[in-house]
């Protein structure tokens, strides 16, 4: 593997990774503008903009955008996250230049046709409605809101329906002007490719653009809280959250090892105790997500109204016990799972490109995979126990959805953690 980084004079960054033997490549533009870059009145606009990019440019209709990629057997898509918006395509190596031409066109030259804005507005409102009808989806939005209340980081990516219903063409163009400068973009590609050819093409497309400066983000503040929504469902959907380390924290890998030991697979503590031994749920998991300056440690389960109390109490008890008796074998297994997941995932050029863009945006460099593996290997059982002990005393957030009357409240959760 050969990873190369080039930065143009205007701040536009290009990171490529040649993967010998591959006949395909993934190429895309990652814009460091996501949900947390929105002001309150803009909530949902980054996602709206992502949708509108595919609705036509000055030289391509929406159909032509799709056809040009699919005519060569490729795939094109986009997503919006808390900190980035990505536009990417997967194509054969011979078609990388075409993919970059199409991707750059939709990012730089959307026409925002008023008719298409109205059509896509309805599509997004349907997406919001679908999310509200999916309990194990919407509960994580609610959990984020109570974890980071009254902050951009706590708001949903989709935005509220009333905001989406009011966005205008001027709102879209204003967000582009503010956030879509070359110094806020990263071109990332991986697979069978030619770095120099990509740099030459990117220079011709992006090299004359003027930088707009990077915005100053308010630090995320995990405060904790509770939201419970009563609905006539078959199950209570239960989600718990603690603040986790961000990417820049030395504990980021400790948090990942901890979450894997607790709920990362069938051998994990929560799965074994709550599903296998007690049969209280079908699905239960724990996961750690990292961002630039914060992170979220999340536990999720679905269970019956009659058993939500037992499930909640057992979950808290297992969290506390991990600080006392986490074993060497459990930590070794979690390290192996994390390393295997990392290395298997990076066999995909799309995963490589995304990882490189993400890490370049945060670190200003791309740590190699060996460095990540070494940091995972360096996590000890004592580190995990210490992390678990710190977590038990931390702020906590909780979201519940369904027949929730028998579920403990947040104060009861806090008392049990502290006992």
Give the termini separation.
Answer: 51 Å
Helical content class: 40-55%
Which strand order do you get reading across the main beta sheet? 1-2-6-3-5-4
Instruction: Kindly estimate the percentage of residues that lie in beta strands according to DSSP.
Output: 15-25%
Class of secondary structure makeup: alpha+beta
Write the element-wise H/E pattern from the N-terminal end onward: EEEHHEEHHHHHEHEEHHEEHHHHHEH
Question: What does the largest sheet look like?
Answer: 6 strands, mixed
In short:
The chain is of the alpha+beta class and 419 residues long. It contains 16 helices and eleven strands.
Q: Describe it for me?
A:
The structure is a single chain. Helix 9 (252-263) packs across helix 12, helix 9 (252-263) packs across helix 15 (381-392) and helix 12 packs antiparallel against helix 14. The protein is an alpha+beta fold and 419 residues long. The chain has helices at 45-52, 62-70, 96-108, 114-132, 135-147, 161-164, 169-179, 195-206, 252-263, 269-277, 308-325, 328-345, 349-363, 369-377, 381-392, 410-418; strands spanning 2-7, 13-18, 24-31, 75-80, 85-92, 185-191, 225-230, 236-244, 284-290, 295-303, 396-402. It starts with a strand and ends with a helix.
């Amino acid at each position: 593997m050969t990873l190369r980084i080039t930065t143009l004079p205007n701040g536009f960054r290009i990171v490529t990774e040649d993967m010998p033997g591959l006949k395909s490549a993934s190429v895309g533009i990652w814009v460091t503008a996501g949900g947390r870059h929105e002001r309150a009145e803009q909530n949902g606009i980054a996602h709206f903009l992502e949708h509108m990019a595919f609705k036509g440019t000055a030289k391509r209709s929406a159909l032509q955008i799709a056809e040009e990629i699919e005519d060569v057997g490729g795939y094109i898509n986009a997503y919006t996250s808390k900190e980035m918006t990505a536009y990417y395509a997967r194509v054969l190596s011979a078609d990388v230049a075409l993919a970059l031409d199409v991707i750059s066109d939709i990012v730089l030259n959307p026409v925002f046709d008023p008719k298409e804005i109205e059509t896509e507005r309805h599509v997004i409102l349907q997406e919001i409605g679908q999310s509200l009808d999916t309990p194990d989806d919407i509960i994580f939005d609610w959990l984020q809101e109570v974890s980071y209340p009254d902050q951009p980081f706590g708001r949903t990516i989709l935005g509220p329906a009333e905001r989406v219903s009011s966005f205008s063409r001027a709102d879209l163009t204003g967000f582009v002007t503010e956030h879509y400068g070359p110094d806020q973009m990263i071109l990332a590609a991986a697979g069978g490719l030619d770095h120099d050819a990509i740099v030459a093409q990117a220079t011709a497309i992006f090299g004359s653009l003027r930088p707009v400066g990077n915005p100053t983000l308010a630090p995320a503040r995990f405060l904790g809280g509770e939201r419970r929504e009563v609905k006539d469902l078959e199950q209570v959907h239960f989600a718990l959250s603690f603040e986790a380390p961000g990417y820049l924290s030395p504990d980021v890998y400790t948090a990942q090892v901890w979450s894997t030991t607790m709920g990362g697979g069938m051998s994990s503590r929560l799965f074994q105790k709550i599903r296998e031994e007690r049969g209280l749920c079908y699905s239960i998991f724990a996961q750690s997500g990292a961002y630039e300056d914060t992170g979220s440690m999340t536990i999720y389960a679905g269970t019956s109204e009659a058993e939500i109390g037992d499930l909640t109490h057992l979950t808290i008890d297992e969290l506390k016990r991990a600080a006392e008796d986490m074993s060497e074998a459990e930590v070794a297994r979690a390290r192996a799972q994390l390393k295997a997941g990392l290395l298997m995932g990076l066999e995909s050029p799309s995963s490589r490109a995304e990882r490189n863009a993400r890490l370049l945006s945060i670190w200003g460099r791309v740590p190699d995979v060996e460095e990540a593996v070494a940091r995972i290997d360096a996590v000890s059982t004592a580190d995990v126990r210490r992390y678990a002990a710190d977590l038990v005393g931390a702020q906590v957030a909780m979201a519940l959805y369904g027949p929730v009357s028998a579920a403990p409240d947040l104060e009861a959760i806090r008392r049990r953690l502290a006992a």
